[in-house]
Every structure is written in C-alpha cells, then in structure tokens.
C-alpha cells in the first residue's frame, strides 16, 4: 500500500473490557467529511487519562476502546474544506477531537470547554454517532480544527506528550498570570509536574518551588528549573513556607493530600490551579483558610486550538522539553504495567 493511501479500516491496540490486556483490533473510522484529516501515526504518548479510561475510573467506558491522545504523525489525506494543513505535514492531536464551534465557549476561543457537542479523541461519540478511537493505532481520522502543525525544532517523539500533558500544565499557569512578580509552587513532580516547573520558568516566574512528599526528586526538580524545593514531610520547612506562594499548580492529588498544609503556603489572593484529577472527590479542604486568605481553587481542562498553538511555540522558543522513554507500540501492555507501577520518568512515548 502506498505510504499516502488510506485503508478502509484502522488498526490499534484495544481493550475489550475493564482489566483486560490490550490486543490488536480493527475498526471502521468515522465517515470522512470535507473538514477531516487522516493521519498516519508515528508516535503516541501514554497519559494517566488512558489508564483512567481503560479502568472505567472516571465513569463507564464503552468497550472496545483504543486510548491515546498525545498523537503525532503525518497527514495523508485532507478534506476539501481544509485550508491550513497539507498532505505530508507533521501534525499532532490532543485530548479533544471535536467541538460544536457554535456555543458561547467556542465563539470566545474556549473550545476546550465546549458546552455543545464536544468530542474526546477516544471513548466518545461524534455527531453522526460514530465512536472516536485514539492513538495507540496506525491511523486516526479527526476534524482539522483539532489538528496542529508540529514546530520544526521539536522532534516527533519529544512533541507527543505536549498535546495533553503540555497544554494541561501550560494553560493554567498562563491563565493565572504567572510572570516576573510571581512565586509559583508545583505539587507533584511527575508526568505533569515536571512540565509545570519548566513552564513556570518559561513564563519568567520570580521563584519556582517544587513541592513533593520527600526529597527523592530534589535533583530532578533542580534540573527542571526549580529554584527551591519543599518536602511536605519536613514539618518545620512547611511552617517556614507559610504565605509564600502566589500560584500553586496541583499536578498530583489524592486521598492522602494534606490540603491544610498546601493551603498554608498560599498568600492572600492566591490561586490554586487543579490539573491532577483523582478518581475520588476532593476532601479535607479547610473552607476557613480559603475564605480568610481569599484563595481561589480553579480547575483547568487542556486548552483551545489557539492555546495549543501558543503552547507549542513557547516550548520551541524556550526549550521546554518532555522527559520521556520511547518504546515500541507493540510493547504497550508492558509499558502500561510500568506506568501503573509508577516507573515513568516522566512520560512514555509509543512508536510505530
């Protein structure tokens, strides 16, 4: 088959039920529309969202499902109404692959919060009823509005995780107004947090504080741009850091999160940006501390097409780089085992 021809069926690594290993599975993609693009996938990052979906952790998953929404590949077909992409171009796709483009959110360039018909890149349904399937696969078909050129100076494997982890951590820091007068704390030095530290530096934050349970990742944090390190297990250091942060990016949280300690770090009027989303509801947040210091806790979900293009350019210009391990797509089950065991430093990228 010529490199730029498109098969009738796409093949990927699918889960056919909760707790089941992924196996090769072929499916018929959504009908090709004038605004669509077909992409031959070269790389796909592994995201925590993939595991949540495979496990039905955030709600019921419709199986079979092919996950993966940190996708890079080559355009092999463009619809007649696609104006800004061409065959042979290197592009990426993130966690969203459809929006109504008519609701108030879409019309103000916040398509990531579309209140009409929003479609996730996998485990979702397009307007015609077709199921969306993700990037642990050979090809993908998506509306061109959610397909982005990869900057020349970013390698494909290095760029993949930017399309979810990158934009997830960039947008809330930019939205919080991080700049030369801002002290930023990043909670959780992992797949999201290691990028959060870099974005804070790229946005010229005055100080960047890496916050973790122990000292284990101190050296990595310094290499990633942290100017200070705070171990939450050090009670005296936590007390000394009272009222020192303007913005906190919470890149990891769960049932053991000590919100009293974290809120104690915030200055009056501080903003806590939540991007590490556990499966269970947040608990243990002291409302009086929120009120007495006028602290805002704000959620954030990926980014719009405009935000994503901006993020990619900042990464290229400022040298923000994902720390990742590249593995063959065929080894996906082994990679997922390691991911669940917490062995990633700090992302995995699958390669066809």
Automatic annotation (TrEMBL):
Q: Tell me its cofactors.
A: Zn(2+)
One Pfam family matching this protein = ADH_N
Q: Which GO terms describe its molecular function?
A: oxidoreductase activity, acting on the CH-OH group of donors, NAD or NADP as acceptor; zinc ion binding
Residue span(s) of domain Enoyl reductase (ER): 19-350
Q: Which UniProt keywords apply?
A: Metal-binding, Oxidoreductase, Zinc
The family annotation for this protein states:
Belongs to the zinc-containing alcohol dehydrogenase family.
Q: Which named protein is this?
A: Chaperonin 10-like protein
Native source species? Piptocephalis cylindrospora
